[in-house]
Design a protein that fits this description.
Blueprint: E1 3-7, H1 11-23, E2 27-32, H2 37-44, E3 49-53, H3 60-69, E4 75-79, H4 84-91, E5 95-100, H5 105-116, E6 139-140, H6 142-152, H7 157-164, H8 168-182, H9 187-191, E7 200-201, H10 208-218
Parallel strand pairs: 1-2, 1-3, 3-4, 4-5, 6-7
Length: about 220
């Protein structure tokens, strides 16, 4: 049974979350408004996943504080559609799922279960359930190119992380960005997306993710 901690400034919404999750087999480890979560989480223990409602607004400072408080706990955002770059940015602060407010309860439950099991649950709103055709003539950073090369060798995330000297979480963020950049839906399609020799390397030697790698390798906690 997965333990979920709820964060929202709307008491009625918290009650609704509790009803839906408990009836689906989740355990609610605690709930509170966003402004007092450090003390509340310290009192209840680290949950398996944290569901954060951002109705009242959320800053990266809030996410940074939350991530510093429970760095190993995956976060699921209850939100409206977010701009793509903002979604990428939230991944650096422990967000592993974004659930739009208009979903059915069953979809929320499925997302929470998958995130608690270690999966990313962030979509791009593909129409008619079909993915766009893969894109081949794109520019990849050296690190992205390295990820694709390892995938083509059949490596799993843990093996890739060991080879590159980064965390498994960082590997997942790379994969998420590559899925979007190359227009594919999963690691199998990514591995088949043309020969890695035909994927261009971007002129920049390092992009945002490469900088994030350096933070991970040096153990720097501050992300702001």
């Amino acid at each position: 049974m997965s333990k979920v901690f709820l964060l929202s400034d709307q008491p009625v919404l918290l009650r609704g979350f509790e009803h839906v999750l408990i009836s689906s087999g989740f355990e609610i480890s605690g709930s509170c408004s966003a402004g007092v979560f450090p003390a509340a989480i310290a009192a209840t223990g680290i949950p398996d996943v944290l569901l954060l409602d951002i109705t009242a607004g959320l800053t990266f400072s809030d996410l940074n504080e939350l991530h510093s408080c429970i760095p190993d706990c995956p976060v699921v955002l209850w939100a409206d559609a977010l701009p793509l770059e903002l979604m990428f940015k939230t991944l650096e602060f422990g967000v592993r799922g974004i659930v739009q407010r208009n979903v059915q309860p069953e979809q929320l439950i499925e997302s929470l279960r998958k995130v608690s099991a270690g999966e990313l649950q962030i979509g791009f709103g593909v129409r008619n359930g079909e993915a766009p055709p893969p894109r081949h003539n794109v520019s990849l950073t050296p690190r992205e190119r390295e990820i694709v090369s390892f995938l083509r060798q059949g490596m799993r995330n843990k093996q890739i992380a060991g080879e590159m000297g980064i965390t498994e979480g960082t590997v997942k963020i790379y994969l998420f960005r590559l899925f979007h950049k190359l227009g594919v839906r999963n690691r199998f399609e990514l591995a088949r997306c043309g020969s890695v020799d035909h994927l261009q390397i971007s002129p920049s030697a390092s992009g945002p993710m490469e900088k994030a790698d350096k933070l991970n390798r040096t153990g720097t906690a501050g992300l702001m």
